Input
Amino acid sequence: MSELGNLTVLVVDDDASLRSSLSEILKQAGYLVEVRSSAAEALHILRTARFDIVLCDLKLPDMDGLEFIPRCREADPKSVIVLMTAFGSSEMAIKAMRAGAYDYLSKPFSPDELILTLKKIEEREQLLEENEALKSAITQKYNFSNIIAESSVMKDIFETVKRLANFNTTVLITGESGTGKELLAKAIHHNSPRRGRPFVAINCGAIPENLMESELFGHKKGAFTDATRDKKGLFEEATGGTIFLDEIGELPAHLQVKLLRALQEQQIRRVGDEATIDIDVRVVAATLRNLEDDVQTGRFREDLFYRLNVVSINIPPLRERREDIPVLIEHFLKKHNKRLGLSIKSVTPEAMKALMEHFWKGNVRELENCIERALVLTESESVDVDSLAEAVRGAPEARADAAPALPEINEDNLSIKQHARSLEISLILKALKKTSGNRTRAAKVLEISHRALLYKLKEYGLT
Ligand SMILES: Nc1ncnc2c1ncn2[C@@H]1O[C@H](COP(=O)(O)OP(=O)(O)OP(=O)(O)O)[C@@H](O)[C@H]1O
Ligand SMILES: [Mg+2]
Output
C-alpha cells in the first residue's frame, strides 16, 4: 500500500464525463487518482508507476476488459483490479473474477457503493500485510537465529536440519528432557516448504490412552459415547504441514500399529469410520527414552521404530557440550531482560564458573530457568553467584549429593506425608546421580514408571 497512507487508484474508462466524476469522488474520499482513457495508456503507466487499485471499464475502445485483466496483472501483479460493467451480467462478472479481477461494480453505481468497495479492498490488503508480517516474525523465531549453539555437535545438527528440512522424510529426535527437541522440531518445520501450513504438536505421554486414537485420527459421530459429532484428528489438522509426535515412546502398543499403517499407506481412518482419508503430513517424532532398548524389550515395535528412524538426530545433554553454555546465557539474558524490562548485561566470572560446572540435569530448560530467576534476584549490574540457585552455586561434588538430609523422626513430626515426601526426594536424587541424570534408567532403578518419575520431578520442583 502507498507509504503516505493514501491509496492510489488508476481509473480507466473511455467516457470522459465518467472519468472526471469518478476522479472527483475518489479525490474527495482521500485517494490519489490518475485517469486514462484506453487500455494501452493504462498499461503504459502501470509499467512505471504503482497503483493499489485499478478501476477499469469492461469495454475499452482498444481492448476487451477480460483481455485487459491479465495484461494488467502482468504489468503490476500487486494492484487490485475492480471492473465496472454496464451489463450487470453475473456471467461476465464471474469471468472477470476468474481472469483475476478482485471485484466488480455494476453501472450505474452510487459514490457510496464505490467507496465501500474500495474500503473493503483496503481492509483486505491490510490483513494480508499483517499476515505476511506475522508469518515472517514466526519464521524468524524458528530459523536458526533462535536456536543458539556454539558447539560443533550442535552446528552439525543445524547443518543436517537445513539439508533435510526440504525433504519429507520422517525425523526422530532423541535427547534428554530440556535439550531442545521441540525447538528443533519447529525449526525443521519452519525451514521447510511446509512453513506456511500448520505445525501440530501432540504429547503422546500426556493424553489418556482411550482418547489418543481419536486425538490422532479423529472420529465419526457415534463412534463412542461422547462422540456427538464428527471430529478431525491432528493428522488432518496438520494437512500440508508437520505433526510433532512428542514422547513417541509412550504411545500404547495398539496405536503403534495404527501409526505404522498410517505412515506406510499415507492414509488414516477416523475412529468408527470405514472410509480412508489421504494425508499429506510430515512426521517429526521425539523421545527421551532409548527406543532401541524399548525395541529389545518388546515395548516398542521394531517396524515402527525403523519407519520413524529414517533420519535420527540426537541432541546431546548440555553437560556434554559446555561450550554452548556461555552463548545460551547471553541469549537468555537478552530474552529475559527484555521481557522483564531489566538491563543486566553480564554474569560475574564467579557466577560463570559455577554455571559452567553445574551438572544441568534439566539441560537448557534448567539453564534458562536459572538465568530468569537470577535476573529477578540480581540487584547489581551483573548476575553474581549469590543470585544463582543453591544447587547451581554449590561445589560440584556437594551438588551431586544434593539430596537433603532426611528429617529426624521424633514425636513432634510424625507426618507420614512429609516423611514420605522427603524420602522420595532423596531416593529420586540418588537414582539420578547413579544414572548420571538419565531419567529412563532412574525410573527403572526406582521401580516406577517413567511418567510417574516425570510427575514427581515436577511436583518436587526438581526439574
Ligand atoms: N539451543 C537452544 N537455544 C535456545 N533455546 C533453547 C535451546 N535449546 C533449548 N532451548 C529452550 O529450552 C527450553 C526447552 O526446550 P524444548 O521444550 O524444546 O526441550 P525438549 O527437549 O522438548 O524438552 P522435554 O523433553 O522436557 O519436552 C525451551 O524454552 C527452549 O526454548
Ligand atoms: Mg518437549
Observations:
- Residues 320 and 359 are 10 Å apart (CA to CA).
